[in-house]
Amino acid sequence: MNVRRLSRRRGGGAPPAGTPSWEEVARHHGDFVYTVAYRLTGNHHDAQDLVQEVLLRVQRGLATFRPGSIQAWLGRITTNAFLDDWRRRRRRPVVSLPDDPDLVVPSAPSVDEAIAARALPDDVAGALAALPPDYRATVVLCDVVGLRYEEISDELGVPVGTVRSRLHRGRALLRAALPDAPRRPGRDAARSGTRRTGGGE
Amino acid sequence: MNVHQHPGELLTAYLDGELTPGEAGQVEAHVDRCDACRAELDGLAAARRLVRDLPPVPAPPGFTDGLIAARRRWTRRGGGLALAAAAVALFAGVALADPPGGSDPRQGDRPLSLTGDTPRLEVPSGRPPTADGSTAPTGSPAPSAGAPTTATSAPAPGAPPAEPSATTPTTTPAGPGRDTGSDEASDPVSVGDRIDEIATSLLELIGG
Fold this sequence. Notes:
The complex is a heterodimer of chains A (about 200) and B (about 210).
Chain A: H1 22-41, H2 44-61, H3 70-90, H4 112-118, H5 121-129, H6 133-145, H7 149-156, H8 160-177
Chain B: H1 9-15, H2 21-33, H3 35-52, H4 63-77, H5 80-97, H6 147-153, H7 188-202
Helix pairs in contact in B: 2-3, 4-7, 5-6
């Protein structure tokens, strides 16, 4: 691979073996970062700004990068940059929906197989973009980046229970936002595994 | 929980494989006898799957390559100091042109084009370039006399003082791309404009 190592790192010490250069990150993971950025922002303009900010942070962060899942690392950086920007723009803290333990997912029973079959990606992306930003960030970290609850908890600085709660509400809001479809029994949702075995598709 | 309690959020954790086997078994036992929770589980599963099945969104053609090329270009020129000045100018310009509470991040139909008259590129306000010792121009010899001063008055920072190129972002007309707001569309020209601006901010860090 003809990739020049152009990143100049600050601070003393060589980077750990396996640390990619800035250019390698940009070239090989640029589309992944862009996807996460687009899912978070919902439009190309803001996604491009976000990618730019992420690459700035990558430049700084490479010195402390530890070999592991680079996409998870980039997903974290992207989500945090998104939330930082959102907070800054709004000049106030991220507002969450109240953590109501009694909130029940709107019950439109068992139309979900049909919805899943019919929903267009644009509808889903639009519904995702309409979620409150902290819910959206949590959903993206889980379902786009693929992090575990514990990792999301560490990254966002909230308890695991809050991660679970935001995911639950976020998905409930997504489900409620998607158009209805003919009733159809669907039981296959209850096929997921237990800890460390589920989560995949 | 026990089998008679509605699992609530545990349904979500169940879908994500975040329950212990014992908890998962209780959720399954409950769902088998509770239609409402089964329906809720189905709804959550559908939402989860839909997001996971969303297609990748690749960067617009030329976007990533443009960033890489711009970074190489600037790095080769050793334009770090000029860039620092440009970044300062950009920061000042953004501070003036972009008052607090500006744009709505949900605004989905903005054009991609960014031209010099209204730089929207956001240098993170929490850390202006001068806060970074490596890019602070104070007391350092400028590569070309008066560069920081002239850069400050420039509407866009794309042109380093040492670069006499005639094609800089500041000369790009504001017209094309302004009115093509399709969210999924990517105007290569506009992307090119943005890349130059973005590169300027990006290279803020390379000066050190």
